[in-house]
Amino acid sequence: MSKFYPLTIDSVKQDTRDTIVVSFAVPGELQDSFSYLPGQHLTLRSQVNGEELRRSYSICSAVQERRLRVAIKRAPGGLFSNWANDHLQAGQQIEVMPPMGQFNVPLDAANRKHYLAFAAGSGITPMMSIIKTTLLTEPRSRFTLVYANRASSSVIFKDELSDLKDSYLDRLNVVYVMSREQQDVELFNGRIDRAKCDAFLASWIRLDDIDAAFLCGPQQMVDAIGESLQAHGLPKSQIKTELFAASVPARNHAARPVIGSSQCEVTVIVDGTHNVFTMDKEKESVLEAGLKSGIDLRHSCKGGVCATCRCKVVEGKVDMDANYALEDYEIARGFVLSCQSFPVTDKLLLDFDQDN
Q1: Which regions of the chain does DSSP assign to beta strands (E)?
Q2: Plot region of 304 (φ>0 → left; ψ -120 to 50 → alpha; else → beta)
Q3: Alpha-carbon span 48 to 217, nearest angstrom
Q4: What is the mean pLDDT of residues 180-192?
Q5: pLDDT per residue as tens digits for the range 88-134
Q6: N or C terminus of the chain: which is more exposed, having fewer CB within 10 Å?
């Protein structure tokens, strides 16, 4: 799971003025490694101006399509996204880590469910995989998507969404909310905040008919929608969230009183190999200490958002500074984000290979 593989870019399509869709050719011997679930993401790695950069991007294909592709939108000051938009082209190779992520729910052909999704901007990317896979897997289920953008010109996958709507007239409902383009229905104008979501639930969406909700976008929007959904009766366990890493403010580690020794002996299991190193408990995260020790621990955002560095505490204890990716049931099972984890005990055993 932690290994990068060089994949050849099959195609690069300009979807909007500032977004490209990149498809990868996966050789036969890697098909199993790169099989994916809806809502999962890929971590890409490349040298940009002499610096190694890693970024995670959601897969936007249905599982049934067996076509690995991601959308990369330019971001202000985004070193990787701007480089990718300017330089990636068909025939190039780029290093890619196999799919990861828990932004999904179990699907069953016998289900008759109604799913709800709120997305903003490039937050539509995982939703495309989730929506298409769900509608293909569960022929009696429905999906409602509320998609926020500045204007119609910035809508990613606009044509693809239109084709999906035509294919699933009775099972897919798509609502566009524009912040800088006036629409006839006032509810569909402006930003999606708590009041806007409350209004949707009061007049447009019957929450008692919703089985699960998916939220993807900037933290402020996702938090507001999550609060509204729960206030109107949808249990937190039925709400899946994914954040834009750039929307999460940087946090400085607040040192805590050290218990026992000032140092910790850490063992990490990566791809079946046990690696041991010693670190100070309060100076840096387990991830940073492991990387400095020469261990290639998987990571991407380093901000507690993407969950690429997710691992399981087998022995010992850590404190996590921030968590925007793991759900309560994952934490209860012992999973942590190594980029946000600081040792509490004198010995620590972390397993990066465990998935459940």
Answers
A1: 5-16, 19-25, 41-48, 51-58, 68-73, 93-100, 114-120, 142-149, 172-178, 212-217, 239-243, 263-270, 273-280, 310-315, 318-320, 335-337, 341-343, 347-351
A2: left
A3: 26
A4: 95
A5: 999 999 999 999 999 999 999 999 999 999 999 999 999 999 999 99
A6: C
Tokens of 229: 């959904």
Q: What is the mean pLDDT of residues 46-74?
A: 95
Does 31 map to a domain?
Answer: yes
Q: How far apart are CA 158 and CA 4, in angstroms?
A: 32
Q: 239 with 118, same domain?
A: yes
Residue 217 inside a domain? The answer is: yes
For the record, the structure tokens of 198 come out as: 């409350």
User: Is the confidence at residue 251, as pLDDT, over 80?
Assistant: no
306 and 229 within one domain: no
Residue 14 DSSP class: E
The reply to whether 138 and 95 lie within a common domain is: no
Whether 225 and 304 map to the same domain: the answer is: no
Residues 123, 58, single domain; the answer is no
User: How does the average pLDDT of the chain come out, rounded?
Assistant: 95
- The CATH number given to whatever domain includes residue 131 is 3.40.50.80
Band of pLDDT at residue 1, cut at 50, 70 and 90: low
Label the pairing between strands 19-25 and 5-16.
Answer: antiparallel
Based on the domain organization, do 27 and 82 belong to the same domain? Answer: yes
Could you count the other beta carbons within 10 Å of the beta carbon of residue 243? 24
DSSP symbol at 247: G
Closest by Cα among 7, 43, 57, 44 to 28: 7
The pTM assigned to this predicted structure is 0.90
Range of the domain at 318: 263-351
Supply the pLDDT for residue 245.
Answer: 77
Tens digits of residue pLDDT in 312-340? 999 999 999 999 999 999 999 999 999 99
Domain boundary among 67, 100, 133: 100
- Burial grade of 346 (CB within 10 A; 0-12, 13-18, 19 or more): middle
